Amino acid sequence: MEDGKLMDYSVYYPSVLARYFESLIAGIFMMPFLLGIFIFSIVYIIKNKKIIETVSISEVEGGEIVEKKIKYIHNYDSVISIILVVVCPILFVLSLSNAFNLISDFPHAMNRNFTITTGIVTSWSTADERTYHRVIEIKDINTDEIIKISVWDYPIHKDEILEVIYLPNSGEGAIIRRIDPDEFERTDKEILN
Q: How many structural domains comprise the chain?
């Protein structure tokens, strides 16, 4: 926004769209994969019903023969299948909700209807000094709404002021710029406090 010119945000469209379609394709492939593992695990459990087996062991104690029954896990594959039957539906529901957000953003992505906002970082990521996938939360300075955004960028710290462009449902986005707090007018600084 130099010399009174409006900023051209179209330079950020390809990066946001690339991350959006990458997430959409991964989500679409993940759901049938999880569903397949779930169905395979149920079929495996039905075919191999006996998981815990009881064995009788005869021992001599004090001159008498004593029969003891010991239970042990007969088939560890079935135990793993049971764990998968419990975990896969949970992962399926989570990926379904993520896919729903991604699919509902499809019209926005095709029409390049992105949301642009400025906010203060409330949840941040400094995991690595390199460019890295980060999920952050920012508080919009105009609406006080907390927005969760997924970006690829350098470390992001709490209380940084960012201008971001993102898709409204999935939160796939990019950081347009990091704003120095001194750039804000007096009223904007009052919002920070």
A: 2
CA–CA dist 63, 29 (Å, integer) = 65
Q: Which of 128-132, 171-175, 180-184 has the lowest mean pLDDT?
A: 128-132
166-156-102 Cα angle (round to 5): 25
Assigned token pair, 38? 């779930």
Q: Is the pTM of this model over 0.90?
A: no
Give the burial class of 169: count Cβ atoms within 10 A of its Cβ; 0-12 exposed, 13-18 middle, 19 or more buried: middle
Angle at 65 between CA 63 and CA 68, to 5 degrees: 135
Domain that holds residue 145: 114-192
Digit-coded pLDDT (tens) for 51-62: 556 667 777 777
Selection from 36, 171, 51 nearest residue 105 by Cα: 171
